[in-house]
Design goal:
The chain is α/β, with parallel strands linked by helices. It has one domain: Rossmann fold, CATH 3.40.50.1400. The protein has four helices and five strands; from the N terminus they run E-H-E-H-E-H-E-E-H. The protein has helices spanning 16-32, 50-57, 77-87, 117-133, and strands at residues 3-10, 37-42, 63-70, 95-100, 103-109. Strand 4 and strand 5 form a beta hairpin. The chain is elongated and about 65 Å long. The N and C termini lie far apart (61 Å).
């Protein structure tokens, strides 16, 4: 049976919390049970690297489709150039096929969050939480 996997791609940071957040998001997605395999990776400063995460996921020969999903708000140099180069994508491409571990795999490159209304709602909720935390109770 062919499985679909998802690998989150975070930026990476010298601050440990950054990698913990990406790992926690991957755990939440894994626990939801919609994907055959779930992993995470970082552009720099943290491990696993994108290449290492792909290698780990490809140890399972039944994972034949891998979605690379950036945990970025907007498309900058990493999203437009660095990640596509690692995946072997030409500029503007979002789909490629590569043999990894003796198995032909389909790689799909997802978009960053962008101006998604769900993100706007979350931003508003966090702002309201901050207001409530800083408003004296009577």
């Amino acid at each position: 049976m062919d499985k679909k996997g998802i690998i989150l791609v975070g930026h990476g940071s010298s601050m440990p919390y950054n990698s913990e957040v990406v790992a926690s998001l991957a755990d939440q997605i894994r626990n939801a049970g919609s994907w055959g395999a779930v992993g995470y990776s970082f552009m720099n400063m943290n491990r696993p690297s994108i290449r290492d995460a792909i290698g780990e996921m490809c140890k399972d020969p039944s994972v034949t489709t891998i979605i690379m999903s950036p945990v970025f708000i907007a498309a900058g140099v990493h999203i437009k150039e660095d990640v596509p180069e690692i995946l072997g994508l030409a500029p503007g491409e979002t789909l490629t096929y590569r043999e990894v571990g003796g198995v032909e795999r389909r790689f799909i490159y997802a978009a960053p969050f962008g101006p998604d209304g769900r993100l706007a709602t979350l931003i508003e909720e966090r702002a309201m939480e901050a207001v409530a935390a800083c408003t004296p109770t009577e």
